Amino acid sequence: MDGSRIINIQNGNNVAIRGLNWFGFNVGMGMVDGLWIGGSEAATDFALITYQLRLLGYNAVRLPFIWRDLEMAPKNLDKACYPVTPEQLKRRLISPHMLDTYSSKQLPGNVSPQRKRQNGYCNQYLPGGSSSYHRLLFVMQSIIAQGMYVILDYQPMGLEQHPYNQQQFVDSWTNLWSMVACLPNFKSDLANRVFVDVMNEPDSMGIKWEAANGRPGAHQLYLGTADALWQVTPDEVLFMFEGTGQQALGLNWGNGFVTDQDVISSRGLADANPFFLDLMSRPYVGKAGNWHKDGCLYISFGLRHSNGAACPSPTAIPDC
Questions:
Q1: What do you get for the CA distance between the two ends of the chain, in Å?
Q2: Burial of 218 by CB count in 10 Å (0-12 exposed, 13-18 middle, 19+ buried)?
Q3: 144 CB-near residues (< 8 Å, 6+ apart)
Q4: In this predicted model, which residue has the larger pLDDT, 128 or 301?
Q5: What pLDDT does 202 receive?
Q6: Which end of the chain is more exposed for a tag (fewer CB within 10 A), N or C?
Q7: Tell me, what DSSP letter sits at residue 152?
Q8: Residue 240 and residue 155 in contact, taking contact as beta carbons nearer than 8 Å
Q9: Is residue 320 pLDDT above 90, yes or no?
Q10: What is the pLDDT of residue 141?
Q11: Residue 2 lies in a domain
């Protein structure tokens, strides 16, 4: 980080974020999804899939989750799989019309491999325990070890009631972030590599900017959470805030950020201004943003399909 900019430490240039969503911690899996597929290890093994994401040019992975899934017991995702050769891996990673040009080149090494416990099986190294929190932390560290950023994205979407209780909402986030901060490699490897997307699309929960009907607003949930997490790791966490309460303009995808008072009044929109005024006085104002800046929401869908495409390994998760 350089002030509010994410930069390449080698040349000082701004880093363009090229990311994808990897669902699973919000759909009853308690882990990123798709590892049940079987067959080729290139399509089944978590560590090898993460390595391929890096080679495809991604530098960020967004991990949607809900608290219910993090509290569930881990599922057994040991799966029979067969190995792939470097040549087979290249065919997965290089566009067919460019294969002849680049197939002779050697693939970069996998900086975060996982040793198989038994030949012919994938994912046996995934952590167990009584909940899936350890798996989320393992996934987060594995992705960052490949040189990518991670976005922890709370995505309730009507599945649980935490956003209706500010104290419960803030406490849940503080508990998770305290686990992240507790990792022995936090300061060396994880600080300022993890974005906290406090809540995905609050409109899905009927949450507006302001508190109403005995329920907190996004204003209170966002700043209450950010204040608490900043106390845990000052200057070592990045925040993302999504807009809400402006469906009258079709802005119900986390992009409800209209601040023009005339438009707000004439269209009956929730007012984002008080939130931004309070945010400006916070010490983390330079480390807060949103996914929809500069219209990226409208160009992101399918972008990687149309345009193609040295960190340590994760440490053990401590009990603290």
A1: 28
A2: buried
A3: 150, 189, 190, 193, 194, 311
A4: 128
A5: 97
A6: C
A7: E
A8: no
A9: no
A10: 98
A11: no
